[in-house]
Amino acid sequence: MPEVIMPKMGDAMEEGTLLKWLMSEGDEVSEGDAIAEIETDKVTMELEAEDSGTLAELIADEGQDVAVGQPIAFIQAEGEEAPSRTEKGGEAEGEEGGGGEGGEAPTATATQTDAPKEEEPEQPSGGEQQANGRSNGQFRASPIVRRLAGENDLDLSKIEGSGPAGRIVERDVRAALEDGSAKRDGGGEEEVDGQNGQAEAQAQPVQASQGSLQAAKLPEPTGWPGTTLVEPTRMMRVIGERMTEAKQNIPHFYATVEVRMDNAMALRKQLNEQLEAEGVKLSVNDFVMKACAVALRNYPNLNALYTSKGVELHGAVNMAMAVALDQGLITPVIRDIGSKGLAAISRESKELARKAREGELKPDEYQGGTITVSNMGMFGIESFTAIVTPPQAAIIAVSSIVKRPSYDENNEVVPASMMKLTLSADHRIANGRDGALYMAEVQKTLENPVLLMV
Amino acid sequence: MPAENGNSENGDVGREETRGEGTVATSGNGLVDVYREMVMVRTFEEACQKGFRSGKIGGYLHVYIGEEAVASGFLSAFKEGDRVITAYRDHPHALILGAEPKNVMAELYGKGTGLVKGKGGSMHLFDVENGLMGGYGIVGGHIPLGVGMAYAQRYQGSDHITQLYLGDGSMSNGAFHEAANLAGLWGKEGLCPCLFIVENNQYGMGTSVERTTAMTDLAAKFDAYGIENEKVDGMDVEAVMEVAQRAADHVRETGKPYAVEALTYRTASHGAADFMEKYRTKDEVDEWRQRDPIGLLEKKLLENGELDEEKLEEIKGETKELIDDAVKFADESDQPDISELYTDVYAGEDEYLGEK
Amino acid sequence: MAETKTYREALRDAMVHELDRDESVVLMGEDIGVYGGTHLITDGLYDEYGPKRIMDTPISEGGFTGAAIGMAMLGMRPIVEMMTWNFSFLASDQIIQNAAKVRYFSGGQVEVPLVIRGPNGGGVQLSAQHTHSLENLYGHFPGLKVVSPVTPNDAKGMMLTAVRDPNPVIFLEAGALYGTKGEVGEGDNAVPFGKARIAREGTDVTLIAYGRQVSLCMRAADALEEEDGVSAEVIDLRSIRPFDEDTLVKSVEKTHRAVAVQEQWKWFGVASEVAAIIQEQAFDYLDAPVQRVSGAEVPAPYARNLELAAFPSEKMVANAARRTLYIEEK
Question: Which of B131, B168, C217, C300 has the largest CB neighbor count within 10 A?
Fold first, then answer.
C-alpha cells in the first residue's frame, strides 16, 4: 500500500512538522490533492498526494515532528488492506527509545571523585625533592629525557633541569649518566650508558646473575641496633657480579715472584732528574707495566682473550691498569704499550688515571685491554692476588716495595728494596709453567732495567 | 601524437557488465525515437524527484524537466569522437549519449554500480567512453575546460568538436567571458571547434535573466568575442535539431566556435529542494507548460500519424519499465566498497598520499 | 656529467627537453612567447616551436588555466606559466575545483597531466599583492602535487618529473633565485617527488625548509657551527605534497631538535605541518619543542627594511636553533 511520507524539501532537511491534516481517514484522494500542511525549517506548504485511493490511515498527529522519509499516512488503493498501525509505529518508537546512552551515566559521579587520586603517578614527595624540573608533582622533562631515563633506569627526581622552568633536558641526563648519579634506587636488571657501565661493557655477557644480592639465597638483614644497611651502588653491583662470575668460572692459578727493585729505583731516580724539565715523573708502576709488556713477547698465551671460538692471541699489548675510585674501580687501557717508551707510558697513565677519577673516560679508553696490572703498592700491601678480568688471560698484582736485609755476592748483609708480583692466570689458556717462566722474565727485566730500553 | 580519446586506462570503471545493450536514445534519429528519448529523460527525472523526496538521493538534485528538447536536439548532431561537457543539470546528456539509466540512477543513489562509482553524484556524471567529459558543479567553472578540449581536438589533428552546454546564469561569470574570449581568439586560427549551447531556461536558480544583466540577448554576448551566434526555440525539438546539425557542421568544418542560445523553460523547480517558487508565478509556469517540448512533439506526431494512442501508451509503458528497473537496480545495488574512498585521487603510482 | 647553470636555464632546459620529447607538451601563459617571458624563462622558445605550442594568452588566468585542464583531460600535457603565483588566485577555482578533483569525481575516468609553474615568494620589494608563498594553500588539496625546488639541478630534474606526472603539479619556483647558479646534471636527470634532500648533515639540530629558505638555513647552520660549535642538519623538503615524512623523522630521531622555516605566515603553514609530523612520529626523541620561523603576520610591505623584517632571517633561524639547544640566543 503506498505510503505518504514526510518529503525531503531541502538539502539539509531532516524532519518536518505535520501542521494540519486537510483530509480525514476514509477520504478519497487523487494524485495531486493537498492532504496536509507541513512545515519545514524554511517554509509551510501543502503536501500533495502522489497516489490515488482512499486515505486509509493517518499515522502522524497534528503538531508532530516526523523524520524525512517516515510515513505519515497510507493511501489504500482499491482492494488493498490497511497495514497494522503498530508495525510502522513500533519501529519508529523503537528507534527513538533505543540507542540511549543512559546505561553508563550513573557511574560518572563516583569516578569523578575517586579516580583522579588513584591515577596520579607515583612521585617521591619529600620537600627536598621539590627541585627544579617539576611543579605540582609533575616533572618537566623533554620526551627524549623520559625515554633515556626509562632506558637507563634513572630517577628523574634526582636530576636538576637546566632548561626553561627547570625542564630536564637531554644534556642534564647525559651528565647524570656520566657521573653515575640519578640511578633509580632498588634492584632489577639494569643497563647503563657511560662510565658506570664500563666494567660491564668489557665483560663477556653475564648469564644468570650470580650477583651478591640475589634476594632468594641471602639472609634478611638483622636490623640489630648499631647496624646500617647500605645498598650497593650500581658500580658495586656490576663489579660484584662480574668478579663473582670470573672467580667462579675461571680456573685461576697463581705465581709469585719477589723482585729486587734497587736498580729500577736508581734508574727511575736518574731518569726523573733528567726528565724533570719536561714535567715527566716516572712511577714504579710505569716500570712494572713496561716490564710486564716486554716480558710478554715470549709468552703470547698470557696476552690473550678467551673467546667463544677459542683463545685469541694478541700481538700488541693493551695494558689495562686498575684505578681505584671511591665507589669501585676502573681499568683504562694503554694501547700497544710495548711500543711506547717510559716517558710516554707515564704521561698516558697519569692522564688516564685523572680521567678515570674525574669520570671523563670514553669507552674506547677503558675497553679492549688484553692483560691487566693492579697495583696496591701505595697502600703498603706486602702481597695480594687479583681476580682475572674476563676475557683476559692474566692479571698481575703489584705490591709495595719493602726494604729488607739481603745478601750480596760476598754474603754480606745489605739492604735491598723488594717487591712482590703475583700473577693470576686462566688455566684454560696457560699452564703453570708458562706463568712461572713469564714471571721470572718479568723479574729479570725489572732487576736489569736497561732491558726496558731495548 | 597521443590518442585523442579519454586518457584514463581504467576509465571504464567496471561497468561493462551493466551496459552496452543499446539504449532507447541511440536507436535512431527519427522523430519517434527523439520522442521516446525525451520521454525517457522525463520519466527518469521524475523518478529522481521521487527518490530525493524519499531520502534515497542525497545532496543536490537538479532535473531537466521542461528542457528536454535542448539536449535531445543538440545531441542528435553528436558524432562519435565528439566531446560533451556541461554543468550540473547533466542527467539527460549522460542518458542520451548512451549511459544506462540504471548506472545513472545508481550514481544518484550513491551506489558502487553508479556511473562514477558513487564518487560524484548527480552533479558529476562522466561517461568518457561515450563522449561525456563531465558534469560540473560550479557555475561557469567548466566553460574554460570545454574550450581547452576543443583546442586539444584540433591540436591533435582530429575533426571532432566539443559541445559545451552552459546555462544563462553562468554568462555573468568571469569564467564564461575568459573562456569565450579564448575560444574566439583560438578560433581565428581554426583551433577551437567549440559549439556553445546556452540552455537559457530564464532563471539562474531564482533570479531571472532580466534581473542579472542589462544585456538580455545572451547570444549577442558572443559577438564581443568574435563568435558567430543565433537563437533557437528550445521547446521545439525539430527546430533545435536543425540548428544543431548546421552549427555542428560549421564548427567541425572551420574549427571556429559557434554559439546557439536555446530559449527554454524549466517547468520543475531549480533543485528538488527549491519548492517555494517565489520568483515566478504559477501562471507563468502554466503558460510554459502549454509549450512543453514533449507535449508539442506528441501532438505533432499524433497529428501526422507517426504515433497513435496505442503506440504512445506502448512507449510510455516501456519507458516506465526501463526506469522502474533502473530504480530497482539502484536501490538493490551495494554501496561502494569502503576501499574506494582512497582510489582515484591521483593517477599513476600513488593513487592516494594520505594516511588510511 | 654536470655543468654550471642558472636556475632559469635549468628550467628552460627541462622544458625544452620535454617539448622535444613529447609533442603533446605545450606552454601557455602571459607574454611567454613573443616577449620571451617576464622572467625570460621561455625566452627563444616561441621562435623554435611556434605559436601552437608556445601559446601567448590574454591576461586571463582562470580562462587559460581552465582551458589547460581541458586540454590535459584529452591527453595533452600543458605547462602553464603563472607570471607570478600571486595571480593564481584568479585561477584557483580552476586549480582547486577542477584540476585537483576531476579525477576523483569522475570515478577515475580522466587524468589531468598538467604543470602550473611560476615564481613563488617574495624578497624583491614587490609589496603586498605580489608577495605570497602558496605552498600551504595548494598543498592542502588532495589531487594536487606541490613541489618547491631550490637548486638549479632540482629545478630541472623536478620539472622533468612534473611534466611526466599524470597529475596536476603545482611547481613553485624560487623566483628570487632565478639567476643563481649551480651544478646541473645533463640529459634526463629526473628528480622524483616525495623525496627530501639532506642539504647538510649534522647531529645537533635539524633545520627544515624548502625553496629560498633552504639557503637561509645553510647560512644559519654555518653560523651555528662557527659561533656555538653546533652541528646543524639542513633538510630541503623539495616536495610539499607528497611529503617525505621519513627523512624528516629519521633526522629528528638523530638530532632530537627541529626548527621549521618558511617564508609564509606562521599560522596554518607548512612549518606547522612539519611540527605536527615530528610530534606525532618522533615525540619520544624530542628534547625541545619544535620551533617555527615564519614571516611576520602582515601583508608584505614595500620598504626594504620592512620587507627584510617581515621575512625569516639567518639570525632568527640560528636563534630558534639555540632555543632548542637551551643555549643563549645571540
Answer: C217
Q: What was the pLDDT predicted at A125?
A: 40
Domain count, chain B: 1
- Mark yes or no for CB contact A69/B52 under 8 Å: no
Residue B118 predicted with pLDDT over 60: yes
CATH number of the domain at C249, please: 3.40.50.920
> Among A279-283, B71-75, C249-253, which stretch is predicted with the lowest mean pLDDT?
A279-283
**Residue B267 in domain:** yes
Q: What is the pLDDT of residues C243-255, one digit of tens each?
A: 999 999 999 999 9
CATH code of C80's domain? 3.40.50.970
| Same domain, yes or no: C28 and C148 | yes
Query: Could you tell me if residue C190 is inside a domain?
Result: no
Option in A8, A42, A50 nearest B52 (CB): A8
Write out pLDDT tens, residues A378-408: 888 888 999 999 899 999 999 999 888 888 8
The helix (run of H) or strand (run of E) holding residue C146 is strand C145-147
Contact C168/B at CB under 8 A: no
B124: chain C residues, CB-CB within 8 Å:
105-106
The residue segments making up the domain with residue C36 are 2-185
Q: How far is A36 from chain B (nearest CA, A)?
A: 16
- Closest-approach residue (CA) in chain C for A169: C287
Rounded average pLDDT over C84-88: 96
Which chains have at least 3 CB atom pairs separated by less than 8 Å from chain A?
A: B, C
Average pLDDT over residues C292-296: 97
Is the pLDDT score of A41 beyond 90? no
Judge contact between C142 and B353, C-beta under 8 A. Answer: yes
Tell me the pLDDT of chain B averaged across its residues: 90
Instruction: Answer yes or no: are the C-beta atoms of A446 and A288 closer than 8 Å.
Output: yes
Please give, rounded to a whole number of angstroms, the shortest distance from the CA of B39 to a CA of chain A.
19
Q: What are the chain A neighbours of C285 within 8 Å (beta carbons)?
A: 143-144, 147
Section B147-157 average pLDDT: 98
Pairwise CB contact (< 8 Å): B148 & C145: no
Active-site option among C18, C30, C61, C273: C61
Q: Which residue range forms the structural domain that includes residue B195?
A: 18-332
Q: What average pLDDT score do residues A116-137 get? A: 41
Helix axes B293-303, B68-75, angle to 10 degrees: 70
Question: Of the candidates C60, C97, C194, which has its C-beta nearest B182's C-beta?
Answer: C60
Residue A115 has pLDDT above 50, yes or no: no
Q: Are residues C284 and C141 in the same domain?
A: no
Best residue in C287, C324, C329 to probe A by mutation, most A CBs within 10 Å?
C287
Query: pTM for the full model?
Result: 0.69
Distance CA A170, CA A168 (A): 7
- Note whether C207 and C317 are within 8 A (CB): yes
* A427 assigned to active site: yes
In a domain, C330, yes or no: no
Q: Which residues contact A253 (CB under 8 A, 6 or more apart)?
A: A424, A425, A427, A432, A435
Smallest Cα distance from B113 to chain A, Å: 23
Q: Is the pLDDT of residue A273 over 50?
A: yes
**Between β-strands C77-81 and C54-56, what pairing exists: parallel, antiparallel or unpaired?**
unpaired
- What local confidence, expressed as pLDDT, does residue C94 receive? 98
CATH of the domain at B69: 3.40.50.970
Range 311-330 of C in CB contact (< 8 A) with A? 326
Using the 3D structure, point to which of C126, C150, C185 is the last residue of a domain.
C185
Read off the DSSP letter of residue C129. G
Domain identity same for C165 and C247: no
Number of domains in chain C: 2
* Substitution target from A132, A140, A142 for chain C, most C beta carbons within 10 A: A142
What is the strand order of the sheet B228-233 is part of? B132-135, B83-86, B162-167, B194-200, B258-263, B228-233
Q: Please name the residues in contact with A109: beta carbons below 8 A apart, sequence gap of 6 or more.
A: none
Same domain, C181 and C209: no
Same domain, yes or no: C146 and C255: no
- Looking at the DSSP bridge assignments, the partners of residue C124 are none
Domains and CATH numbers, chain A: 3-94 (2.40.50.100), 133-205+218-237 (4.10.320.10), 248-453 (3.30.559.10)
Which pLDDT score, from 0 to 100, does residue C163 have?
A: 98
Strands C145-147 and C181-185: unpaired
Q: Is residue C26 part of a domain?
A: yes
Chain C residues lying within 8 Å of B185, measured CB to CB: 58
